[in-house]
Amino acid sequence: MTQLLAASPNPMPTAERYSHADIHLIRAPTASIIEHTWRSNHHAFGTTVALETYVAGLKNLDNQEFSGRKNHTIWILVPKTFNQDYEPDLDLILATAETYERPGLLATTQDGVKDVRAISVASVHTPERYRGNGYASVMMKLLWKEIQQMRHISFTFLYSAVGPTFYGRIGWAPKRSDEMLIPTEHVLPQAETDVIPPVVLQEITDQELPALLEQDAARLRQRMQTRLETASSKQTLVAPLPESNCVRWLLARARFTTEHILKLDQHQITAVGAKDSKSDSFVLWYPSLLEDKLFVLRWHLDEKLLRRDRDNTATALIKVLQQEAKKWKLSQAVIWNPEQSLADLAGLCIRYRYEKAIPSMGLVTSLEHDTDDVNWVLSEKYSWC
Ligand SMILES: CC(C)(COP(=O)(O)OP(=O)(O)OC[C@H]1O[C@@H](n2cnc3c(N)ncnc32)[C@H](O)[C@@H]1OP(=O)(O)O)[C@@H](O)C(=O)NCCC(=O)NCCS
């Protein structure tokens, strides 16, 4: 046993432990430190991709409007002795996280529906040799304080991959989330050909996203207003705003995968969704080829449609999702938090999603708020990061 250890070519150095009083959270100050954090978390978030390709993908994302320097921050937890100005010892970075500032909506019976700013958190990571020392917990507590001190932020959210407890005890309360899987080979109870006249769908392209999502956001404000009419005075309704920048950021990820990771001959993602030519109904999608899923980013059925037309439109939209998934050789499409009526129409089940990407939300203004009274409206994939 001793001999085996002695023969190891790269023995792992024992990591020094720092008292929580001796560490602090700072913004990664330089491009080289930012790149170091990406290289360091490759084994956790990019295992299916070679390191240089992973870093290139993150650089590409960093150039998107959504993650412009003003909105996107990489946080590093370091000992207070860490010298960020002169040849910093990058091995002393104990934990890292990213935040994205973005628009949101917040509604209460007192103040009505307000446009606010929100912060989503992603890529929470502790290098393996530093794990189990409470560093990620300390980092998230300090991050919560940082967000509070920004003053203009109303709520913060993230998608937990480590269950409900870790982030829940700091302030990001887990919210129930469901999903419906639509296998590409699933035969819908009602075939599109049964519908006379047939529903006519049009492709949605990138250029249409800003106008389409502005209308969508306007409808969401209205929907929250309506919900307030029956809400109790304790309740707060919260939603990340559906907007083109976050959707384009997700599409940039998908495009990088088709072109530079899988290097597909037919790599162009031209249609990013489909809309009904006669109503406001539409669906936006995002092919996640490494996960074998076509994710629905946003699903909307026009409430003004009569029941029969609504069902026909929904059927046509599901069929187009199946076609799009097939086009990318994916085995299924996935919708987060669909209505039960949609599952009934499709002849499919809705299942509780409790393991991966658990939506977790906190109001920054007050930790005393009963988290059950904070309702996440429109919890769909568009706000994932
Ligand atoms: C999750 C992670 C950031 C924790 O880092 P850490 O510095 O060791 O965290 P802490 O020491 O502060 O706390 C660890 C707690 O998280 C729990 N935890 C860690 N990994 C977990 C996992 N995969 N599932 C559930 N709980 C987990 C630990 O059990 C521990 O709980 P305890 O305090 O009740 O004992 C680290 O394991 C990591 O980088 N993992 C890979 C990347 C990842 O999954 N990030 C989270 C994305 S949402």
Sum up the structure in keywords:
Acyl_CoA_acyltransferase, alpha+beta, 31% helix, 385 residues, disordered N terminus, LAT, 9 helices, 7-stranded mixed sheet, 9-stranded mixed sheet, LYC1 C-terminal domain-containing protein, 26% strand, Aminopeptidase
List the helices and strands and how they pair.
Blueprint lengths: L1 H6 L15 E5 L3 H15 L5 H12 L9 E8 L15 E14 L3 E14 L9 H15 L3 E8 L4 H4 L4 E2 L3 E6 L17 E4 L4 H20 L7 E5 L3 H18 L11 E4 L5 E7 L4 E8 L6 H21 L4 E5 L3 H7 L4 E2 L5 E6 L10 E3 L9
Helix pairs in contact: 2-3, 3-7
Protein name: LYC1 C-terminal domain-containing protein
Pfam families: Acetyltransf_9, GNAT_LYC1-like
Task: Describe this structure as you would to a colleague.
The two termini are 44 Å apart. This protein has 2 domains: 9-174, Gcn5-related N-acetyltransferase (GNAT) (Aminopeptidase, 3-Layer(aba) Sandwich), CATH 3.40.630; 178-354, Gcn5-related N-acetyltransferase (GNAT) (Aminopeptidase). It is globular, with a radius of gyration of 23 Å. Strand 3 (95-108) and strand 4 (112-125) form a beta hairpin. It has 9 helices and 16 strands. Strands 1, 2, 3, 4, 5, 6, 9, 15 and 16 form a 9-stranded mixed sheet that branches. Strands 8-10-11-12-13-7-14 form a 7-stranded mixed sheet, with helices on both faces. The chain has 385 residues and is an alpha+beta fold. The structure holds coenzyme A. Coenzyme A binds next to strand 4 and helix 4.
